[in-house]
Amino acid sequence: MQSTALIMAAGSGTRMKSSKPKVAFEMLGKPLVRWVVDAAKEAGCQDVISILGHGRDIVEPLVADTTVVVQEQQLGTGHAVMMAADELSKRSGSVVVLSGDCPLIEPKTIEGLISERQSKGAAAVVLTQIADDPFGYGRVIRSENGDVVKIVEQKDCSPEEAAVNECNSGMYCFDISELLEYVSKLGNDNAQGEYYLTDVISMMVQDGKKVVATVVADNSEAMGINTRVQLAQATKQMQLRINTRHMLAGVTMWDPQQVWIGPDVQIAQDVEILPLSILMGSTSVGEGSVIGPNTRIVDSKIGCNCKVDESVVLESVFDDGVNCGPRAYIRPGVHMCEGSKAGTHVEIKKSTIGKGSKVPHLSYIGDTTMGEGVNIGAGSITCNYDGVNKNPTTIGDRTFVGSDTMMVAPVNIGDDVVIGAGSTITKNVPDGALGIARAKQTNIEGYKKYKGR
Ligand code: UD1
Ligand code: CA
Q1: Is 82's C-beta closer than 6 angstroms to any atom of ligand 1?
Q2: N or C: which terminus of the chain has fewer CB atoms within 10 Å of its end residue's CB?
Q3: pLDDT score for 199
Q4: Is the pLDDT of residue 221 over 60?
Q5: Which of 196, 181, 171 is nearest to 106 (CA)?
Q6: How does pLDDT run across 70-108, given as a tens digit for each residue?
Q7: Could you tell me the distance, in angstroms and rounded to a whole number, from the CA of residue 101 to the centre of ligand 2?
Q8: Using CA positions, which residue lies closest to atom 37 of ligand 1?
């Protein structure tokens, strides 16, 4: 049966103390609302409706693959659903209502809500949690025989109701036509003057409709983010969830508390990730590689048996057996071919470093195509920028560039070339030549005596 997800994400998130809307904040590099959309899709809801309001220009591009409806004024969760009534009335079956600020919800829990509603023929299933500290949440009030009677918001609670610790997670599965019928009847006669979505529950119960409340297996899934403190707590939860998954799949971590891996990162077995390492975006790491300590890799492909030590790698590709760092900065567009090396305090940008070629110490290489088996001496750089344009350098196979060489681009250095240390190379060097461009050394005898020392 078709199921739709409805994601409430119109609120401002006042307690984040930010000009940015709350649901656009990121957890491990992915916006909060995106976590919720992706969880819904993974649970089988390909049809997602997002309710946006506050900061819509920022949030809308984050949910571009969903149907967006606008709630100009945030008059409550019930009002939010009313704004989606037109869209919902085009659909039938189940709708799962989720919150854009509850990013820890798991796809299997969403699937469970849908199948429970369908198997029990219920008008609504409410996901609840037993909270240690229920303050602030809506309380789920049950009758003596355990049936749900109503949900009462914190500000509307009697003392007895406030003592209940079963709380509304704010996530539900409804039959669409039942939801539409009851949402249209909502009023706002309550402590906050809001249209509460939660009031549809008691209205359904009064009309003899079947309403089920089901307790979430893991409370962290129901965690809502209202402050940056809670954002950090949720990030910690997700960090450990992701790291546990990788460790169980054969990845070693000395300390999973000190490794941050984005949700889409792929890591092969027998990879070792040392402390203070951050792997984000579409990064992948091949078997046997060792990453870290103190390394950040974003949107990059790292091959098998590579070593990336104390380095930053952005939008680049490493073939197998690459050795990087400590303290290399690999900027976008680098291809490190098999067995190549970017060593200590080396910066490389938009360049190919051929098979087995080495840039071991203190170099800048930019806009360069380097052949195989090249050795770049310490302190050598490509002068790729003339103040106006970026210019290319090519270096042939097996060429040896002496230390402290400036290669002033555009320039071509051939195969099997030797460049004398300290040269400033401004002209092309043909295959097999020695290129040398430096002032001849002069020794002035008796200098110490002359200075009177
Ligand atoms: C809501 C529930 C409460 C539950 C809690 C769980 C109601 C009335 N109360 O309370 O029972 O325990 O969630 O976290 O539903 N939103 C809109 N438009 C609005 C109002 C809210 O899109 O007009 C969005 C918010 O951006 C947020 C979500 O709905 O993503 C929840 O709204 P919020 O105001 O935080 O509800 P709570 O008071 O926390
Ligand atoms: Ca909330």
Answers
A1: no
A2: C
A3: 97
A4: yes
A5: 171
A6: 999 999 999 999 999 999 999 999 999 999 999 999 999
A7: 7
A8: 137
- Whole-angstrom Cα distance, residue 104 to residue 423? 58
Q: How far is the CA of 97 from the centre of ligand 2 (A)?
A: 14
Ligand nearest to the CA of 75: 1
Annotated active-site positions, please? Answer: 361
Q: Ligand 1 in contact with 197 (CB < 6 A)?
A: yes
For 342, the 3-state DSSP assignment is: strand
Compute the average pLDDT of residues 175-185: 98
Residues of the chain with pLDDT > 70, as a percent, come to 99
Q: What pLDDT score was predicted for residue 141? A: 98
Mean pLDDT of 206-213: 98
Which of these, 265, 269, 273, lies nearest to 288 by C-alpha position? Answer: 269
Band the pLDDT of 453: cuts 50, 70, 90: low
Instruction: Give me the residue label for tokens 């461009």.
Output: 437
Q: Please tell me if the CB atom of residue 51 comes closer than 6 angstroms to any atom of ligand 1.
A: yes
CB count within 10 Å of CB 346 equals 25
230 lines ligand 1 (CB under 6 A): no
Q: For residue 275, how far is its CA from the centre of ligand 1 (angstroms)?
A: 38
Q: For ligand 1, what atom is nearest to the CA of residue 226? A: 35
Which ligand places an atom closest to the C-alpha of 137?
Answer: 1
Substitution candidate for ligand 1 out of 34, 59, 99 with most atoms within 8 A of CB: 99
CB 80 near ligand 1, within 6 Å? yes
Longest dimension (CA), the chain: 111
Query: How far is CA 345 from its chain centroid?
Result: 27
- For ligand 1, is residue 79 a contact (CB within 6 Å)? yes
What would the pLDDT profile of 236-257 be if each residue is shown by its tens digit?
999 999 999 999 999 999 999 9
Give the span between the Cα atoms of 451 and 441, in whole angstroms.
20
Identify the structural domains of the chain with CATH numbers, from first to last: 3-222 (3.90.550.10), 243-435 (2.160.10.10)
Ligand closest to 8 (CA) is 1
The arithmetic mean of pLDDT across residues 146-154, rounded, is 96
Give the pLDDT of residue 38.
98
**Could you give the CA distance from residue 74 to residue 51 in angstroms, rounded to a whole number?**
10
Mean pLDDT taken over the chain = 97
